[in-house]
């Protein structure tokens, strides 16, 4: 692969994979074909991220709100995730990729939870890249669970309420130990966060691509990195250029 000539590569990229259904509808195909093709795009995204030197890639695979879809579509999506883990785990492990799962897992069905735990356990010492799969994930649910844990820690005398800081909350989120996303990509032209990483996205850059997720490939990934590299991130401060004028 030719080296990317970009001044900066985001450490953490998160993706809202949207548009599988519309991709299928446009072609007169059932939604399930769109989801199937979406898994191919997942493989492309993981490969592209690794090749570009991204260290953390988060994919929004199934939201806590997706349970309201028709039963058949839910089964379809769960089946695809199960097959992805069964078929691709060995390859991901060989490529030294660590897998982490974020989302509510206490109430997960027995046909999916053990697979997710196995993927995490098998790859726990891998260091090339971390692939974070958001499954049964909703940011408000994640923050609520962190708040409950914090209250329990206060009640147990482990935390003094006066010492509660943003870090005390961050370290109780599912993403504890993972840096915040520098770049969040959403495909399909929709421009919203849809309950994804609400806490962690405080200073993320957003890139909205018009393509539907099944069409997403390495070129789209690199295009998003180029847009990101041209952004001026200030984190609430002043940019270097502005400082140069002010001083
Ligand atoms: C959005 O399309 C996509 C999803 C709800 C699921 C994404 C899941 C996959 C790509 C497959 C499994 C994931 C992994 C990690 C193997 P949509 O159905 O909302 O499309 P629409 O908005 O056009 O209807």
Automatic annotation (TrEMBL):
Cofactor note: Binds 2 magnesium ions per subunit.
Record-listed E.C. numbers: 2.5.1.-
Active site: 18, 66 (proton acceptor)
Enzyme class, broadest EC rank: transferase
GO biological process, one term: polyprenol biosynthetic process
Domain of life: Bacteria
Name of the protein this chain belongs to: Isoprenyl transferase
Protein's organism: Pseudorhizobium banfieldiae
Gene expressing this chain: ispU
């Amino acid at each position: 692969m030719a080296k990317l000539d970009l001044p900066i590569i985001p450490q953490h990229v998160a993706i809202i994979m949207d548009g599988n259904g519309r991709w299928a509808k446009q072609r007169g195909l059932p939604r399930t074909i769109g989801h199937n093709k979406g898994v191919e795009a997942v493989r492309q995204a993981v490969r592209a991220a690794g090749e570009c030197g991204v260290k953390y890639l988060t994919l929004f695979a199934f939201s806590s709100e997706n349970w309201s879809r028709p039963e058949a579509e839910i089964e379809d999506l769960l089946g695809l995730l199960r097959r992805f883990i069964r078929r691709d785990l060995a390859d991901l492990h060989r490529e030294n990729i660590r897998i982490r799962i974020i989302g509510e897992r206490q109430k997960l069905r027995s046909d999916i939870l053990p697979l997710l735990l196995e993927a995490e356990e098998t790859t726990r010492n891998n260091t090339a890249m971390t692939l974070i799969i958001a499954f049964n994930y909703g940011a408000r649910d994640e923050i609520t669970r962190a708040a409950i844990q914090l209250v329990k820690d206060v009640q147990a005398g482990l935390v003094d309420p006066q010492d509660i800081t943003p870090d005390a909350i961050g370290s109780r989120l599912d993403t504890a130990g993972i840096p915040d996303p520098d770049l969040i990509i959403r495909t399909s032209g929709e421009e919203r966060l849809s309950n994804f990483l609400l806490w962690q996205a405080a200073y993320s850059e957003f890139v909205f691509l018009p393509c539907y997720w099944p069409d997403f490939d390495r070129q789209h990934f690199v295009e998003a990195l180029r847009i990101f590299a041209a952004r001026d991130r200030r984190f609430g401060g002043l940019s270097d250029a502005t400082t140069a004028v002010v001083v």
